[in-house]
Amino acid sequence: MQPKLDQKDTAILTLVQRNCRLTAREIAGKINSPITTVFAKIKRMENLGIIKEYRAVLDPKKLDCGTTAFILASVTYGVRNEEKPFSQRDKAAEIAKFPEVQEVHIITGDWDLLIKLRTENVDSIGRFVIDKLRFVRGIEKTLTCMVFETCKETTEIPLKTRKE
Fold this sequence. Notes:
Distance between the termini: 19 Å
Largest sheet: 4 strands, antiparallel
Number of strands: 4
Radius of gyration: 21 Å
């Protein structure tokens, strides 16, 4: 069951998503609410796991990680001489441990996994695929899609304001 959120909750979440450095006092001023209410609501949403964590969004180009690729991977399920077939979840968790991997998703369709990778250049993406990903037992094939330009990238979740 999803927790109930009122208009103040969604207003707080909208502000915090855009700038998690806002103080409770600043948020209270923006939504016209007492600071104690804002503080209590934030703590409640943290405890419920709605707010999972706070972090800075870094510019990958300024940190020598400006090359992005999305990689589709297929998992082999039936492997000879193996006691049990490979699991998509296990393979996703294994791939997620590589530091250059930003996201791993289990997907439907002709492919099993979608991997988002950030590195310094195309060569390093090639090395990742050839020297790391293809050595993950159970990965059958891959398809790498290079990103030429990113038009939108966000972690912000669109929130519907509920009428009270």
